[in-house]
Design goal:
By secondary structure, this protein is an all-alpha fold. It is built from seven helices and no strands. It is globular. Belongs to the class VI-like SAM-binding methyltransferase superfamily. Isoprenylcysteine carboxyl methyltransferase family.
Length: 232
């Protein structure tokens, strides 16, 4: 067992199949294939497709570029109760608002902006995981291994990007999903919760990185920002 999910090939295959099925439903809904019901909108369809693609992508990238750390937990589905509450709240806010005040969901440009953020955020996160390869981990490392190296090139190098592209990618991916749904309440809550999480995580992680790599990391940190608001 790994966490709450059995770490077996059957479990991985089953989860991948279910995520693929959910992705297909979301994609078809986005394209108008299930337009018979009032709630099957392109906005909800995109959200469902993006959510399932994100979780499948986490596993696929880990399996392809970081096989030693790959397990069924790499899907990131066992991500804590707050994560599932946040996703459920987003869907609930969207459905309730769509039913009672449908005019609040009619600003197409907001949803398009959100889609762009989702796609760019997904690209940043996946590219960061691929480039870091075996140096990437979903959990924080508190002990330096011989295989660890400081990754400062590629997507990690450019000032226009950031030194934590996987975190920034998820930050903007998640906020983008709320713009797609035009969820004003969840957008604010997502911003606050994500900021608090990544502020705490980056402070802890960077203390370890300074311990591991010394002045090399300090110079890199001073040169390249996080590109997450109010996290230097």
């Amino acid at each position: 067992m790994s966490g709450n999910l059995p770490n077996t090939p059957l479990a991985a295959a089953t989860i991948a199949f279910l995520l693929g099925s959910v992705f297909c439903f979301g994609l078809l809904t986005f394209l108008g294939g299930f337009s018979l019901w009032w709630w099957t909108t392109y906005q909800l369809g995109f959200f469902i497709a993006a959510w399932s693609a994100f979780h499948f992508g986490e596993f696929a990238v880990t399996a392809g570029w970081n096989l030693e750390k790959c397990s069924v937990e790499s899907f990131l589905l066992d991500n804590g109760s707050m994560y599932h509450i946040a996703n459920g709240s987003a869907v609930l806010e969207y459905i309730v608002t769509l039913y009672f005040i449908p005019s609040f969901k009619t600003r197409a440009w907001v949803s398009i902006l959100g889609m762009i953020m989702v796609l760019l955020g997904q690209f940043m996160r996946s590219a960061a995981m691929i480039h870091a390869s075996t140096n990437f981990s979903h959990s924080l490392a508190f002990r330096r291994l011989e295989s660890h190296r400081l990754v400062t090139d590629g997507i990690y190098a450019y000032v226009a990007l950031c030194r934590h592209p996987s975190y920034a990618g998820f930050f903007y991916w998640a906020l983008g999903t709320q713009l797609v749904l035009q969820n004003s309440v969840c957008f604010v809550l997502y911003f606050i919760l994500l900021w608090r999480f990544f502020y705490s995580r980056t402070r802890t992680e960077e203390r370890m990185l300074v311990k591991f790599f010394g002045d090399d990391y300090v110079k890199y940190r001073d040169r390249v920002g996080t590109k997450i608001p109010f996290i230097p």
